[in-house]
ROK family protein (Streptomyces pactum), 318 residues
Amino acid sequence: MPADLIAALDIGGTKIAGALVDGSGELPVRARRATPAREDGATVLGAVTAVLRELAGSPLWTRVAAVGIGSAGPVDASAGTVSPVNIPGWRGFSLVAAVRETTGELPVTLVGDGVAMTAAEHWRGAARGRTGALCMVVSTGVGGGLVLGGELYPGPTGNAGHIGHISVELEGDPCPCGGRGCVERIASGPNIARRALENGWRPGPDGDVSAAAVAAAARAGDPVARASYERAARALAAGIAATAALAEIEVAVIGGGVAGAGEVLFAPLRRMLGDYATLSFVRGLTVVPARTGTDAGLLGAAAAAARGTRLSGFGTGS
C-alpha cells in the first residue's frame, strides 16, 4: 500500500480540525472537535488526540506518510512547542512530542497557522505559481507567512511572515505583544469594531458589534464604519509595502474573516497601497483575496509536512 497521504491538524481557539489529505488537495477523511480553550492543557490535548484517533480509525491511515500541524501561535517549530494566545492552558506545550504519542514513528511538522495558510495558498490558491508572496490571515488577529524564491519560508521557529506585529504607528496604541501601533492592533476584526464603537458607530437592533456588522454598515454608507475599515486598510497597506520592500514579494493574499468584507476592505487597501509601495521594484505588487477558504489550515499543514517527504504533488505551487 503506497504511503501517499498526509494527516493534517488545524488547531485554533474555536476548533481542532483534522483530515487525511492527498496530493491533489482532496480530503477523503475528516474529523473535528470543539477546542476546550478555557480548560487545562491536558483537556485540550485530549481533544487533539480524539481527532487523531478518529483519523487513525480509517482504513486509509495505512497510507499516511507524515503528520502536519498548523497551530495558533506563537509556535516554536524548532522545539516542537506551542503557546497559543487563545489557549491559555498551553504555554510552551510540547505538542509535537504529544502527537507522536498517538502517531508513533511518523515524521511530524509544526508551523504557525499563518504559515499553514500560506502553504495552502501557494499550493492550491491565489499564490499558486508565484515566486514571492505574502499571505495573510486577518481575523481576530493578523498572521501571515512568506513564499520566497518559489518556496514556503517558515523560518527557524515556523513564524516567519508574522506581519501582524510589524509596527506601522511608532506612537500608536500599545499592543498585547508589547509593541506599539502594530498592524494587528489596527486591522484585526475586534480592533476594527472597537474603533468604530469608540468613534460613535452603533449596532443595529440585533446588537451585533462584530467587524462583519461594521462592514455591513460601511456598505450601507455609514461614514464611521467606513472610516474604521479605511484605517485598517491603511495599516495593512503600510505593512504589506514594508514587507515588499524587504523581500520583493509580487502578491499579497488576504484571507480570514475580515477579508469577507470584500470591497469594503479591498478597495481602500488597493488605493492606499499606492501611497506606500512607491519604489520601482514594488509598484507591480497586487493584493488579492485568498481562495482556499476554511480548509486552508488543513491543506497548508499537509503541504508543510510534505516538504520533508518525497511525496509528489503537495505544495509545489506549480
